[in-house]
Write a structure and sequence with these properties.
This protein has 370 residues and is mainly α. It contains twelve helices and two strands. Helix 7 packs across helix 11.
Length: 370
């Protein structure tokens, strides 16, 4: 809330804001059946997220012009409209180049779109928009769109190299689309990268402690690209260990794991970071602050799964879950995952980053005339 003050304060701002978010989200979700929600609506919604990350986190909701001079709710509507336009263009490009014009959007295309979201977060949060931000005299448009292009390029390369969809050879779309035969089972690769995102956001809650404390004594550590390399390596190692514990050691189904562990925890992290603005530990020092937030993430993950499962049954009925025979494979998990990250996160991102909690918050008072 960089340009807002007054109105509700935390925790009431976050709680009431989240009620607004849920009202908007499920008001939209009720319009779609399970198939259209998971395929078309979820794909189109997720295509808007990378630009939302750039507009909210890189540009601070003040670019492109005239965003900085607009008041709410016009500012939020302007940025939301831009996000939808960019998302529509990206969706058209991806359906053509990645999806091979197969309709409805296929699992390989949806996996690529999810990867584009993860890579955008990675490039912005871990790499600080480097290398685009490392060029002197750079323009906000260059940094933002440059980072967006790099994120999509990384997502495409990793999707091609690490995602194997050979298990879908009998699907009617396979010959037309020819998805990649990468190094690993596609569900396993997706689970790993989702876990990486959960680890990144948990480390944000820790303010990257203890690496940040080390960087304070050795400033060279905080400079890119060294910082990005170190953080990325640690994130990958931790994510691999977490996934191995749940999937390899505990025998959890990899897609069920993706929903119940990283996706639900990511959603809890979004609530604590964006909606609650790290309340109730805003003034607590690290690592206690981060540890408390991570515990709250886990609690929220458990609660949100049950809440969205309840809404799923209320809206769509009791859908089949788990690795049942096609076409009903993981329908329950896909519905909940799409509702959580495909729909609720864009609403959270736009409501906090574009609308600044309007109308629950009040604008800054005008400076007195001299």
């Amino acid at each position: 809330m960089s340009n807002e003050q007054g109105g509700l304060k935390q925790p009431f701002l976050g709680i009431m804001g989240f009620i607004v978010v849920l009202f908007i989200t499920f008001g939209i979700v009720t319009w779609f059946g399970p198939v259209s929600l998971i395929a078309w609506a979820g794909e189109l919604s997720m295509c808007c997220i990378p630009f939302m990350i750039i507009a909210g986190m890189v540009w601070g909701g003040n670019y492109p012009a005239p965003a900085a001079s607009l008041s709410q709710p016009l500012k939020g509507l302007y940025l939301l409209l831009l996000s939808m336009i960019v998302g529509a263009l990206v969706a058209g490009w991806s359906i053509k180049t990645v999806g091979g014009f197969a309709t409805p959007p296929t699992p390989p295309l949806i996996f690529f779109t999810i990867m584009s979201v993860i890579m955008t977060f990675w490039c912005v949060v871990v790499w600080g928009c480097w290398p685009a931000a490392g060029i002197k005299g750079n323009h906000p448009a260059f940094v933002g769109f440059g980072t967006l292009i790099i994120s999509y390029a990384l997502a495409f390369v990793l999707w091609k190299l690490l995602f194997n969809f050979d298990f879908m050879k009998d699907a009617p779309f396979y010959n037309a689309v020819m998805p990649p035969s990468g190094a690993f089972f596609a569900f396993s690769s997706l689970a790993f990268f989702l876990t990486c995102l959960a680890v990144i956001l948990a480390w944000v809650e820790l303010d990257f402690w203890p690496l940040s404390a080390m960087a304070a004594k050795a400033p060279a550590l905080a400079k890119q690209p060294l910082w990005g390399i170190i953080v990325s390596i640690v994130v990958c190692v931790v994510a691999y260990i977490v996934k191995m514990i749940f999937v390899d050691k505990m025998g959890m189904d990899v897609f069920v794991y993706s929903l119940k562990v990283p996706i639900c925890i990511i959603f809890g992290e979004f609530i604590m970071l964006l909606m609650m603005q790290t309340w109730p530990v805003q003034t607590v020092k690290q690592p206690v602050k981060g540890i408390v937030l991570i515990i709250l993430n886990i609690i929220l993950a458990l609660v949100m799964y049950q809440l969205y499962h309840y809404f799923m049954v209320s809206i769509a009925g009791q859908l089949p879950g788990g690795p049942v025979p096609p076409p009903d494979t993981y329908v329950k998990e896909l519905w909940i995952a799409t509702a959580l990250l495909g729909f609720t996160f864009p609403v959270i991102a736009s409501y906090t980053g574009f609308f600044n909690f309007w109308p629950l918050s009040e604008p800054k008072p005008e400076a007195p005339q001299q």
